Amino acid sequence: MSDDALALRDRLHAGQCSAVEVAHAFLADVGDDALKAWAAVDAERLLSDATRLDGLDRAARIALPLFGLPVGVKDNFDTAELPTSYGSPIYASHRPTADAALVTRLRVRGALLAGKTKSTEFAWMHPTDTLNPLDHARTPGGSSSGSAAAVAAGTVRLATGSQTAGSINRPASYCGVVGFKPTFGRLPRGGVKPLAGSLDTVGLFAASVRDIELALTAILDVPPAPPSPAGAAARLGFARTPLWSQIEPEAAAAIEATSEAAGATQLELAPGFLELVQAQTTIQYYETARSLAPELEHSPQLLSEELRMALDDGARIAEAGYATAKRTASALGARLVDTLDAYDGVLTPSTTGVPLLGLDFTGDPVFCRVWTLIGAPCVSLPLAWTGGGLPAGLQLVGAPGRDFELLAAARSLVSD
Question: Is 252 part of any domain?
Answer without folding.
Answer: no
